[in-house]
Structure formats: structure tokens, C-alpha cells
Amino acid sequence: MQLAHHISGQPSAMLKQQSKLLIVEDEVLFARAVMRRLQKAGYECAHVESLQDARTIFKQFSPDIVLLDMRLPDGNGLDLLADLVVKNVAVIVMTAHGEISDAVNAIKQGAIDYLKKPIDLEELLLSVQKAEASAIQSNSLDYSRQRNAHAIDGVELLGDSPAMQSVIMQIQRIAQLVAADTVPPTVLISGETGTGKDVAARLLHLSCQVKGQNNDKPFVHIDCASLPPDLMESELFGHEKGAFTGASATRPGLIEAAEDGTLFLDEIGELPLALQAKLLNVLERRMVRRIGSTKERPVPARFIAATNRDLHEMSLTGSFRQDLYYRLNVMSIGMPPLRERAADILMLAKHFAIQTSRRYGLATPVFSTDAITMIKSYDWPGNVRELRHQVSRAMLLSQQGNITELDFALPMNRLLLDANQHAANTMLNSQATLDEVERAVLLKVMAESDNNVSRAARKLGITRMTMRYRLEKHQLNIKTEE
Fold first, then answer.
1. β pairing state of 44-48 and 296-298
2. CB-CB contact of 24 with 67 (8 Å)
3. Residue 478: inside a domain, yes or no?
4. Are residues 381 and 287 in the same domain?
5. Same-domain status, 356 and 310
6. Which residue intervals define the domain Sigma-54 factor interaction in the entry (predicted)?
7. Under DSSP, is residue 15 helix (H, G, I), strand (E, B) or coil?
């Protein structure tokens, strides 16, 4: 049994992106030629000469692709093929003249390609590259499907503020409209980043499940901003075998994977215009057609879309289809920013602190008076997500669960510590409010920076956008330079 490592001179960063190949071939000279060509292309290879050795090395080497000869000293390659397919390994079979029936059987049992000996090494490399692309696409689709396969019981929107209670009532009202024998209305959830749009979508999904008395319907979350551009259409709509290069097997898309559950299209504003037209057709006709197929399949799923962008404005400028915007906006939910939920902030902070303490087995959290004042006074531009992360950090840094203002890493802390500590302390001792302290520091730093926003932002360790936001917040109409 022979194990070949990376050849020298190949950049390690590139090699990490390549697949690992196992060559199961008893013709040693041919196997060595194959290994040299694949190593030159940057692949990591191992070679064995029998089925027994292949089974032995499999756990140690964990190949992504196997080049499998059909005739081996201790049996037929088909004896190993079934085990490899179950383990989600891409298999390319190699056959001699007169063994085409074996190749056909191998394809039926899950092999993705076959090559007839004598094999051209460039043809073999092309087949390996196609197998690699197919495996990447398959893994990406499986990940997207399984990402939300875990139970999402216990999802809740916390808040007693009027703004959040209005959202909860809207979700309950929409859930009441859903019936098993009707087409569910599309829902558009809008709001700033970090306001909990994904939580609202999951809660709506669960609420509708309870209505239908069926609690095992899938919830498929698609982040349109992170889908690979070259795989986006196939991910959503699926494809037939041979529809394009690398489409070695038929794959249903995520729209089909949602079945009679919920398809959540997060960051819908990032979807390309060409796919917007295709999505609109699915929503209008409730039918989907895979790439390369002539057959249409019904779409019973509920569609929920979310965005932190102004889709109406985008539709007016042509960057988002108007007809799709109106089709998505049948029912709408607006997630309020945290600054409009002042009554909820401290309650949420305590909730996140308790969550963190339970997760890490820490002492029961207690917020100091200064920490509470800071939490209530800060404007939380990152909304609930920023609050959760900051509280978790403070909890982990706190002594015995006693959370103080120094345990937070808020920009306001840096303003107090980095700008003019003496002046800030003087104002605090005179019982000035936190807003007054921040306003004074902004004025001072702007004056020191000759009213240059970028320079002042760098001094305070914040972005230029954040600096402009704070200037506008305090109505400091300073004639500024960029």
C-alpha cells in the first residue's frame, strides 16, 4: 500500500482547496502515472492495489473522490462501490475493453462517471475536476437543507414595548390566515440589520405549524447574499443531470426542499434581476421547473422574504423588480430598531446574560448601576444582535457575574477613555448626563481634527459613518470636511 503526499513547490493555501483522491488500481505503472498528473494539478493522492487495502486506508485518508478499477486481485470494484456511495464519496470507475456492462452497473449504483482503458490522462483530469465541482455543489445544497434541520422549538420574540407587541400581534394575525387547503400569503419582513428578522420568520413558521397541527414541516433558510453566484440558480431551482457542465446527477432545488413548509429568503434584495423574474414566476404559478427539465413541479411552500434595504426605493431605480416587490409585499412586518424599544433593552440584556451564564456554568449575573445606565443610554446601532454579543462578552469578562460598565466594549466607553478623560470625569462628577458627555467629547475631537470627520473618527476608533451618525444625533451642524 502506497500513500503519496503533496508534491513540493505547491502553495499550501491552494492545496487545501483541492480534493483528496484515492486510486484503487492494481496496475502499478499506470497508477503512478495517474498520481503524477493529479499531483501536478495540486491534488493529494493515495494509491492502493486491492479492495482490502482500500477499506483499510479509507478512515485514515478520508478521500473525496475515488478512482476505482473494476477488476482487482481480491474482487470486483462493484463490491466497494456501495460503501463509498453511502459515505457520499464521488466515484469514477475505470474499465477495460469488454467491461462496459460493469460500468453501466456502476453508474446505476451511484458512480458519477466511467472511463474506458486505455485512459487519456487529460481526459481523466477533466473527469476528476467535474466530480469535484459536483461534490462541492452537492455538499453546498445538503448544508443549506440541513442548516435548519435542528428543532427550533422555543423560538420567541421578547419585548413588552408597544412596537414589539405590535409585531407579535401581526405574526399571530398572519398565522390565523393560513389554512391547509389554501395558498399561504407571501410575507415580507423588513428592518435594520440585527433587529431579529430571522427570528420573526421562524416564529411565523412555528405559529403556522401549530395552526395546521403538523409540527414536522421543514424550514429552509436561504441567505441570498451568501449564495455562490455561479450556483445560485441551481441551488434555488434545482437541475437535471447533464443540464450544465458538472451536473452529473439530478438535484432538486431548495424551493422543492421546503416541500409544504416554509422557504425563508433572507436578504432578498441581493437576488440578481434574472433570478427575480424566475422567482416571480414561481410565486405567481406555484410551479417550479428545474434547470434542463421540461417538467414542472407544484410548490406548496410558504414564502417569507426579509430585507434590510428599501425594496420600494430599489424598485423605483430599477435594481429590484417592481412586480416582484408587490408580489412579496402581500403581508408585511416591520421589525423596529432597538432604539425604538427602550422599555425592552434592560430586559433583553438580563435575558442574554442569563443565557450566557447557563451556557458556561457561570454565576448568576448582576448588573451594576453604571452598567444599567450605559445600557439604557447607548443607541445600539447594531440592534438586538449587538446587544446580545456585548452582553455575552461582558458576562464572560465579569468577576463572579458582577457586570460593570468596564466589561463592555461599546464605542461610548472608548469615547470616555480615549478622548479627554479629565474633562469627562469632571462632567460626570457634576452629574452631567451621558448624552452631554458624548456631545462635549464630539465637539472637542472635531475641534482638534479641524472639523475633519474622517480624522476625528480615527481618533475615536469608530467609522466615519458612525461619526456622522453621532454628529447628527446631537444636532451638531458643524461645517465638516471629509
1. unpaired
2. yes
3. no
4. no
5. no
6. 157-396
7. helix
Range of the domain at 98: 2-145
Rounded to whole angstroms, what are the CA distances from 270 to 175, 225, 279? 27, 5, 13
Domain boundary residue among 145, 174, 193? Answer: 145
What CATH number did the domain enclosing 438 receive? 1.10.10
Average pLDDT over the chain, rounded to an integer: 81
Answer yes or no: do 177 and 282 share one domain: yes
Residues linked to residue 412 through DSSP beta bridges, in sequence order = none
Lowest mean pLDDT among 174-183, 324-333, 435-444: 174-183
The last residue of one of the domains, among 378, 409, 440, is 409
Q: Do 129 and 35 reside in the same domain of the chain?
A: yes
Contact 444, 459 (CB under 8 A): no
Alpha carbon distance 110, 248 (integer Å): 10
* Lowest model confidence (mean pLDDT) among 93-107, 227-241, 260-274, 374-388: 93-107
256 and 395 fall within a common domain: no
List strands edge to edge, sheet with 2-3.
2-3, 44-48, 20-24, 65-69, 90-95, 113-116
- Identify whether residues 261 and 323 lie together within a single domain: yes
Is the same domain home to 182 and 204? yes
Domain count, the chain: 4
Find the largest Cα–Cα distance for the chain: 95
* Phi/psi at 340 (5° precision): -95, 10
Nine-digit cell at 456?
476625528
- Match 444636532 to its residue by C-alpha cell: 475
Q: 372: how many CB neighbours lie within 10 A of its CB?
A: 16
* 252 upstream amide cis, omega within 30 of 0: no
SS3 state of residue 358: helix
Which candidate, 405, 409, 401, places its Cα nearest to that of 358?
401
Whether this model's pTM surpasses 0.85: no
Q: Cα–Cα distance between 378 and 234 in angstroms, integer? A: 44
Judge whether 173 and 331 are in contact, CB under 8 Å.
no
* Omega before 411 within 30 of 0, i.e. cis: no
CA–CA dist 78, 171 (Å, integer): 54
Interatomic CA distance for residues 408 and 352, integer angstroms: 14
Pair (140, 14) in one structural domain: yes
Cα-based distances in Å from 400 to 60, 365, 435: 45, 8, 30
Query: Which of the 8 DSSP states describes residue 65?
Result: E
> Is the four-CA dihedral 420, 426, 427, 431 of positive or negative sign?
positive
- Which pLDDT score is estimated for 97? 60
